[in-house]
């Protein structure tokens, strides 16, 4: 017996099986064997696209968009998602059951039970059947945490720190992070770290950071998790401490951190506490859809020990909104999607 199961109780998958980007740190090996055991968050698992499902898209580990069609078998990982704009789903208590039907909750390959979704179109949302957990050559199941960054030295090299937050999803956080990276490059900085600290893993976002100048990029997958959900989860502080410690310990001119989601979900408050414990001061940029949201963010962040340096997002899209936001929040308001002089603010 290996891994608690006889050889004839394990399934063998075809060579070259499709893999999703949540497994980008897991080395591929053929043949893959799967164990018909329950799938837990962070396990490397095999799924089959349900016969009655429509084709849908996911990210491959190389970053390209890959189509999955009915009958395809692919590798992904169970996880939770609590998006305020897209889908909400979770890993049921006890894990995914072999033969059970579940949903791809994120383009990176996070799979779980679907709780609800918004009316927005979602090209990744597809129905799949769970087959089992992938085993290594010794019959032990593989987990993301086995390939994660295990520890970070207690070293702070003093890189400039920029923190990008938002009042909700899709308000311009990544646009702001890109603007900061561009501005830093314009000022001659060459070694730049980008961390997507909270939310759902996304290789597309990491590659976008690279496109605009980041030389080193990280997200939760690098620290062993497919997402940083559910909110108020146990043990998340240790994961965030490794993420912060890793970034601070590397030689760099600047670090740009984006917190996915809003100010309260995805364990953003826990991340902010971890960050403040290691680096009390950071330049804080907040993206908000309107002036009232910006005001609320300013008050909420004050209770967490952070002051906003720049407000951006749709609340700065027109001169009227920009002036109102700046006046009522008593904080510089800059549209980072269009402002060509942001380098002066870095």
Describe the structure.
Helix content is 21%, strand content 25%. By secondary structure, it is an alpha/beta fold. The chain has two domains: 140 residues, no CATH class; 186 residues, Rossmann fold (3-Layer(aba) Sandwich), CATH 3.40.50.300. The strands form three sheets. The protein has a six-stranded parallel sheet with strand order 15-14-16-13-17-18, sandwiched between helices. It has a five-stranded mixed β-barrel with strand order 4-7-11-10-12. A two-stranded antiparallel sheet has the order 5-6. α5 links the parallel β17 and β18. It is globular, with a radius of gyration of 21 Å. The termini are far apart. The N terminus is likely disordered.
Summarize the structure.
The protein is an alpha/beta fold and 346 residues long. The protein has 2 domains: 7-146, no CATH class; 160-345, Rossmann fold (3-Layer(aba) Sandwich), CATH 3.40.50.
Q: What's the arrangement of secondary structure elements?
A:
Blueprint: E1 11-13, E2 18-19, E3 32-35, E4 45-49, E5 56-59, E6 65-68, E7 73-78, E8 81-82, E9 87-90, E10 101-106, E11 110-117, E12 127-135, E13 160-166, H1 173-186, E14 192-198, H2 203-211, E15 216-218, H3 236-249, E16 254-259, H4 268-278, E17 283-287, H5 291-303, E18 310-312, H6 319-329
